[in-house]
């Protein structure tokens, strides 16, 4: 696909390994989710199928350019809310 043409397969394999390791590392620390209110949950990385869809549909924008997009701690292990969904209750509590 599009990314495969630009990035060597070894680099893509490295990303898969990296995300596998990141998931293991980030399962070590637990958080309190402001969206569902549950304590001691994990925030897991963005699922790899997102990257596969971006490659399939030739997504051209950098994932680092989005304002609220934490792809390393993307979703709550309990409620599956994304990082921006967890951000909104934090903001509303301040006002």
Task: List its traits.
4 helices; elongated; 46% helix; mainly alpha; two-stranded antiparallel sheet; 95 residues
What low-confidence regions span 5 or more consecutive residues with pLDDT below 50? none
The number of distinct β-strands equals 2
Q: How large is the count of helical segments?
A: 4
Q: Name the average pLDDT.
A: 75
Distance between the termini: 46 Å
Give the helices and strands as they follow along the chain. Answer: HHEHEH
Strand order of the largest sheet: 1-2
What general outline do the C-alpha atoms trace? elongated
Radius of gyration: 15 Å
Summarize the biggest pleated sheet.
2 strands, antiparallel
Amount of beta strand: under 5%
Count up the domains. Answer: 1
Mind explaining what this structure looks like?
The chain has helices at residues 2-6, 9-26, 48-56, 83-94; strands spanning 43-44, 75-76. It has one domain (2-94). The model has no long low-confidence stretch (mean pLDDT 75). The protein has a two-stranded antiparallel sheet with strand order 1-2. The longest helix has 18 residues, at 9-26. The protein is mostly helical and 95 residues long.
């Amino acid at each position: 696909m599009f990314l495969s043409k630009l990035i060597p397969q070894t680099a893509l394999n490295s990303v898969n390994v990296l995300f596998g390791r990141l998931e293991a590392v980030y399962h070590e620390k637990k958080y309190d989710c402001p969206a569902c209110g549950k304590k001691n949950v994990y925030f897991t990385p963005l699922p790899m199928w997102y990257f596969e869809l971006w490659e399939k549909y030739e997504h051209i924008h950098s994932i680092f350019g989005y304002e609220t997009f934490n792809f390393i701690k993307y979703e709550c292990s309990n409620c599956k809310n994304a990082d921006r969904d967890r951000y909104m209750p934090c903001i509303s509590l301040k006002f």
